[in-house]
Each structure stands twice: as C-alpha cells, then as structure tokens.
Amino acid sequence: MTSPQSDPAPQPPQQSHTHGHTHSHGPAAPVSKHLRKVIAAVLIPFATAVVVGLIAFWPGGVPDHERTGVGFDRQTQDGKVVQVVQVDCADVNASQVPPTGDTSTPSGREAVNGQEGECAKATVEVTTGADKGRQFVEVVQPDAPRQLREGQGVVVAYAPDAPRDLQYSVTDVNRRIPMTLLAAIFALAVVAVGRMRGVMALVALAVSFAVLTLFILPAILQGSNPLVVAVIGASAIMLAALYMCHGVTARTSVAVVGTLISLLLIGLLGSLFIGWANLSGNTDDNTGLIHGLYPDIDMSGLLLAGVIIGSLGVLDDVTVTQTSAVWELHQADPRMGWRGLYRAGIRIGRDHIASVVNTLVLAYAGAALPLLLLFSIAQSSVGTVANSELVAEEIVRTLVGSIGLVASVPVTTVLAALVVSADRPGAPTSSSTAATPARTGRGRRRKA
User: Fold this and answer.
1) List of residues 6+ apart from 161 with CB closer than 8 A
2) pLDDT tens across 367-406, in order?
3) Cα separation of 98 and 113, whole Å?
4) Integer Cα distance of 219 and 305 in angstroms
5) How many CB atoms lie within 10 A of CB 173?
6) For residues 302 and 286, what is the distance between their CA atoms, to the nearest angstrom?
7) What angle do CA 323, 343, 357 make, to 5 degrees?
8) What's the predicted TM-score (pTM) here?
9) Which whole-number Å values give the CA distances from 112 to 100, 140, 223, 232, in the listed order?
10) Residue among 301, 296, 291 nearest 230 (CA)
C-alpha cells in the first residue's frame, strides 16, 4: 500500500495518506487494503454469478427456422446496377390498373405517375452467391423514394419459390463503404483524443457488441427469459466496459456497484409498469415477425430487456462521473468528511441529472419522430397519442430509464463518499495532507 516514489522518508503516517495523491495520471483510488478487501468481497461473488449465468444460458448459436421471405427474413445477396435506361412508364406498367384521374389520394397519384411518368429500367447483376453473374431487370417508378444509378451497389433478395424471372429483386442500397469509412473516422477520433484510454474504450465497445450478438440475442431466440438474459448480459457488459476503460480500482468498483443498484431499480420499475400498462411489446411489423417466427418468446419481457440494455450506457456515464467527482473532491480537501463529500458531489450531480435526462428523452423522441409526425398529421390529442401502445412503450422506456438515472446520482455519490472517506486512518494525517503532492517536501521542512 505504500508509495515510495511519493515519500522516500520513513514517515508511515504520511506515507499511508499521500499514496492517493501520487497517481494524478489515472483513476487510482486512495483506499486502504481493508476497504479493497471489502469491495472485492462484494464484487467477486457478483462477477462469479455473472460468469456462471453466461455459462448456464449460453445459447450456442441462433436457432434455425424456415425462411418466410417477409421483411428482414429473406435470403439476400449483393448486386450491382450495370445499366439504367429511361422508358415510358406506360410501356412497363401496361398490366397495372388504369389511373382514376383522382390525384387527391396517394394511390391515385401513384397510378397517374405509373402511366404518364418516365420510369427507370435498371439491369442488375448478382455479384455473390450461387447465381453470381446472373442478371435481372428492375423497374423503378418516378416517385419511388430510392432511385438507382449505373454502377451502384445494391442488396438483392432471393425468392427460390418464385418464377425464375421474378426470383431476384432489389431491396436496398449497399452502404458498406460509407458506413465503414464513418466507423474508421470515429475510431481514429477516439484514439487521437483518448489515446490509450480511447483504445480501451474501443475494445470495450467490441466486447459489448460481442455479448449482445453472441449471447443476448441468440439466448432470447432460444427461448430463455429475456429479463434474466438481459440482466446477465448487461452485467457482463458493465464489468468489461468499466474496468477496461477506467482500470481495476476502488473508484471503478464503486461505479460498478452504483450502476448495478440502478439497473436493479430500472428492472423492478420496468417490470411493474410494463405489466400494469398491459404493454405487449408486439407493436409493429418487426416485432410481429419475431413473434410469428418464434411464438414462445415473451415479447413484454423482450421490451423490458430493451429498457435495461438501453439505460446501461447512460448509467455508466453518470456513475463514473459521480465517483470521479467525489474522488477529486477528496483529493482537493482530504479533511472533508463523507457528509461534506456527499453534499458537494450531489451539487455536481444535479447539473448532470438535468442534462442527461434531457438527452435521454430527446434520444427516444428522435427515434420515434416519424411516429410522432403521423399522430400530428392525424391531429390526435396528447392523451390519445400517449395512450396508444406504440407511444406508451416509449414513454415507459424513457421514464423508467430516467428514474434509474436520477436515482444513480445519490446512490453512487453516497457510496463513493463513504468509501473514500473511510480510508482516513486518523487525526495525525489531517495536518500532513493539507499540502499538495508537489509541496509535500516543503511542508515537511516547515514542520521540522
């Protein structure tokens, strides 16, 4: 526990207290060996339980199912547009119902455009799979939201049971290059600013995606309880991310405990209000497809799992920030007791609460913006909008997550204050720690 580089003179009382002030470059925690043992006694069983849970619920892959050809459940290959020719829509849409002439409705406008407009006749070549090199024709209507151009990469769907000429169709644009470039720019920015800490953050991000794709999603598809799987997976992500990014220290351990308590609160509140509000979790085409393919999945449990996982990232930020604030306050004034540390830390936390809750609400609102626009177009009242299950899900998700965030501030602050203040061995160190590490020597000479 001693730190020889900070105090070479044989003065045990000063050594035991100045240890925490010698590591300004990292989040080293000035706690005693006894407190580290106490923290380890709490976290080691928890980490062991997480590992046991991962082993017990490990899915071993996604279960197979027969392709339906609906939505995302289609066989796809890569393709490339090799030629685009402008043609009269009347020539390629001859079999369609003639337009009614009424352009006041979307169907009427589409019918008129389909007969009178200029369409694009694209020749698409399949570039992957068993039919590599095969070509087919795709007709793009003039009012289609996605237009094709020559040389463009596309994603094509394959329907093996359809007639040969209709087996392939364009379903989306290939966006791999811009998405990969954006990810590379993000990684470079993180490493350039964060340096080694940034590298560890990227590693932790990769671990989070691995847990999500290799454990959480396949385990839910295998029929495991979504809530249990989400708790185990979120705990594994939390342990890996926090300790990788912030080091194996008492400071990080306090943040882990604070995050865990807040996640438990979110799980309890989410379970209560999802059941009370009768939220089924089956509200759109995607969730309906999931329920159709895997009818044994508990969709309301899946909704609760999403609430827990979605809140985890913001919780990590709040708990780490609060813990770091208390540690820095203690280093600035080692004589401050836990009550003083808590009061000072909670003042910082109040500012954090205001910004984080607003961020969370706006994030969910931004994701649901098209839905909110539909309600606005329908001129529905606020009560009607809030009562619909689609919006009620987002409200419960937002408010439950926000309550957990708000609760994490006092919980983490009081834990950090108790832990860091409990390291004070006694009155003899209070005078010796009034000086900063750079002035320790001069303080000793004045005392002498």
Assistant:
1) 69
2) 777 777 777 776 667 677 777 777 788 888 888 888 888 8
3) 11
4) 12
5) 13
6) 13
7) 60
8) 0.70
9) 8, 15, 49, 55
10) 301
